[in-house]
Each structure stands twice: as structure tokens, then as C-alpha cells.
Write a structure and sequence with these properties.
Elements (H helix, E strand, L loop, with lengths): L18 E2 L12 E7 L2 E6 L5 E3 L2 E2 L1 H7 L11 H26 L5 E5 L5 H9 L2 E6 L2 H11 L4 E3 L14 E3 L1
Parallel strand pairs: 6-7, 6-9, 7-8
Antiparallel strand pairs: 1-5, 2-3, 3-4
């Protein structure tokens, strides 16, 4: 089943009404996409070349901002629950950074995280030796991440809002 009209695969829901159809794979550019399944009302497609699974159509920035509101990242109703969640996310980020260093060989260079949430991964990557930057669609997350990092390291918005860097990034994560 070829995906020539991604919106026609499933009936439009409220989220799909404000979505952006994708005509090719965002990783490799392949145009042959096939419907795989539906997740929370969104069709999930698979690229025939690289196998990437992704929502198609993509939620709009407005829909994403509603999903990734301040409450999305809290992790609980009490301060204790939030503190435990924060510790868990920080430790998970350190593990991911160790895995990244095992893959790239050393912790140096410029790193960009797209969808950085509250900045745990950026904080761990910076502590390991990377020069970090990030972006996220949630204004609250950007503010929290910049506070965590102690400066203006995170840009609020999608990838298209990022200014081209003076030097290329050595590592980009999502």
C-alpha cells in the first residue's frame, strides 16, 4: 500500500485537522512510504528504504505545544514524585551520553539536541565535555532547560527556527 496521499489513510481526527502531510522520509528522502498502524489517532508510516517509522501527517506546532505543556514533564503530583522523576531522567541522560561517547569515541565537539525537553541530556552531555545547544517546541521546557544550563542554550520552536550555526554540529540527537 503506497502512501501517495498520507491524509487519506485514516479518518481525520481533531489532531489531524491541524497537521502537516509529509511526502518523503525525513531521514533519507525516499518517497515510497507505507501505512503501518495508527497511534493515538495518527497514521504511522514506514519508509521503504531506511525503515524509519514516523507519524504522517505530522502534528502541527500548535498541536505539539498542547501535548508538551508544562504538566507533561512534571512526573507526578507531589514535589517528592517530581524530584524522583527528575533524578531518574538525569541518570537516564547520563547513561545515554555514555552510550553516545562509546559510539563517537570521545566527548568533544558541538552537539545539538532536537526535542531537548527540560535539558537533562544537554546537561549530562555538557558535563561530559560537549558544547551543547538544543531546541524544543514547549516554551516551558525551553525556559526550564535554559535555567538548568545557566544560559541561553535552547531555542524555542521547531528545527526551522534554529539559526544556522557558524560551525557545523558534530553530533545531532533527537
Amino acid at each position: 500500500f503506497s502512501m501517495t496521499n498520507p491524509i487519506a489513510v485514516a479518518p481525520l481526527s481533531a489532531g489531524l485537522a491541524h497537521s502537516i502531510p509529509v511526502s518523503c522520509c525525513p531521514v533519507c528522502g525516499e518517497v515510497e512510504l507505507s501505512y503501518s498502524f495508527e497511534h493515538q489517532g495518527y497514521p504511522v508510516c514506514r519508509c521503504s528504504r531506511c525503515g524509519l517509522l514516523f507519524l504522517n501527517p505530522q502534528p502541527s506546532d500548535e498541536v505539539l505545544a498542547g501535548i508538551y505543556s508544562e504538566s507533561y514533564f512534571l512526573g507526578g503530583d507531589t514535589e517528592r514524585d517530581r524530584a524522583i522523576t527528575d533524578l531518574m531522567k538525569a541518570e537516564t541522560a547520563r547513561l545515554y551520553v555514555r552510550n553516545l561517547i562509546d559510539y563517537v569515541g570521545e566527548a568533544r565537539g558541538r552537539l545539538l539536541e532536537i526535542g531537548c525537553a527540560n535539558g537533562h541530556f544537554l546537561e549530562a552531555a555538557r558535563a561530559a565535555g560537549f558544547d551543547v545547544r538544543g531546541s524544543d517546541v514547549s516554551e516551558h521546557s525551553c525556559k526550564t532547560a535554559n535555567q538548568r544550563l545557566g544560559g541561553d542554550y535552547v531555542t524555542c520552536g521547531g528545527v526551522e527556527q534554529l539559526q544556522p550555526p557558524a560551525e557545523p554540529y558534530d553530533v545531532v540527537t533527537m
